[in-house]
């Protein structure tokens, strides 16, 4: 399971890096065409917006997998033993249910509706369903990471432990 998780981490991290590099190139092209050529490119703003959607959603899934997502641990920081473990199980179960219900099923329905309606973006002429595919995809990654975290908690491993990066 650890090798599979490492592969998912690498895949997700690589996809985010490629998207970020694409965003930088895209925005640099926009600046170049606007200020140097004096004829702004027509698609770069829309492309940057769509790449930002993908980076944000996939980044949230990646952060969930690395346990470096934003967390309010005011209550759990003062708990110990069985109470802490129970609270961690409840928290990650709620995250799992939210990701499954809202992101995977709700996002999947959004993609299906957009593809069946055939709506396209204005500048790129892409089907918007493909843009919104980031929602259920990120949800699936969050579900995967939540299940792995719950299995780790079931084995008694610390779930909400601070990362070695020093982030609080």
The coarse silhouette is elongated
Number of helices: 5
Average pLDDT figure: 90
Q: Give start-end ranges of low-pLDDT stretches.
A: 159-168
Radius of gyration: 19 Å
Distance between the termini: 28 Å
List keywords for this structure.
single chain; 168 residues; mainly alpha; 71% helix; disordered C terminus
What this model shows, in words?
The protein has 168 residues and is mainly α. The chain contains five helices and no strands. The longest helix has 37 residues, at 81-117. The relative contact order is 0.14.
What does this entry show, briefly?
Helices cover 71% and strands 0% of the residues. The chain has 168 residues and is an all-alpha fold. The two termini are 28 Å apart.
Q: What is the secondary structure topology, with strand pairs?
A:
Layout: H1 2-36, H2 44-65, H3 81-117, H4 128-131, H5 134-154
Helix pairs in contact: 1-2, 2-5, 3-5
